[in-house]
Amino acid sequence: MFFGPTIFRLCEQGAEVYILCLSNGNYEGKGNIREEELWNACRVLGVPEGNIYLINDTRMKDDPKVQWPVQVIAKLIHHHVEALEVDTLVTFDRGGISSHPNHSAVFYAVAYMFVEKNMPKRCTVYTMDSVNILRKYMGFLDLPLSFVLSSKRYFLRWTESRRVTRAMKQHRSQMVWFRYLYVIFSRYMVINTLRKINLADIELELEVDD
Questions:
Q1: Domain of 39, in residue numbers
Q2: Residue 170 gets which letter from DSSP?
Q3: How far apart are CA 102 and CA 61, in angstroms?
């Protein structure tokens, strides 16, 4: 829904891409369906089936009212980064793109890893930029601003973006009317801008929260 351009481009460039999903999306009791949809979407983007890792933990229910335990998420991320010898991690920023608290919890877990010095030194970490509502739905029109404001970015041509659209539409159980509008207008279907972060960045963001 958000990381499509990054996943598509990295797969196209021949990178070994892994997906770590921390919930099967069972908020409406459709977890089994959404698991299959995730696999289908990843297949469309070029991610091998064996590179998808889905976590089903009762402490991390798909629910905006449930506070996910940061330390649990941090341990899961650390385990997979080490086991798979990951050298680049891409995840949500503090805003979680859609302000979903489960998304933001992943950022805080990564922040916790930095503060506790548990992030492997070989692993470079990038967060996906959350943007304001106007930019979010500007689609291709956000390209100039994204180019100026971001040093790390993935842009898709129109023909390439159709692959991301097809991947998005694999999530049939979530394709309610407003998601069709999202597919048409959202910049995240064609543009991803990333920010490299380190401990100093994390400490500054945590100070802002305080």
A1: 3-202
A2: T
A3: 9
Q: Is residue 50 part of a domain?
A: yes
Distance CA 62, CA 94 (A): 18
- Residue 21 phi, psi (nearest 5): -110, 125
Does any domain span residue 158? yes
Say how many domains are in the chain. Answer: 1
The Cβ-side half-sphere exposure at 175, using a 13 Å CA radius, reads 13
Q: Radius of gyration (Cα) for the chain, nearest Å?
A: 16
The pair of three-digit structure tokens given for residue 61, joined into one six-digit string: 């229910």
DSSP type of residue 127: E
Residue 155 is part of a domain; what is its CATH number? Answer: 3.40.50.10320
Instruction: Kindly report, residue by residue over 149-181, the tens digit of the pLDDT.
Output: 998 999 999 899 999 999 999 998 888 888 899
Q: Quick one: pLDDT at residue 80?
A: 97
The verdict on residue 15 lying in a domain is yes
How far apart CA 175 and CA 170 sit, in angstroms, is 9
Contacts of residue 198, Cβ cutoff 8 Å, sequence gap at least 6: 114, 125
Question: In the structure, what pLDDT confidence band is assigned to residue 208 with cuts at 50, 70 and 90?
Answer: low
83 Cβ contact partners less than 8 Å away, ≥ 6 residues apart: none
The SS3 assignment for 61 reads: coil
Residue 95 has pLDDT above 80, yes or no: yes
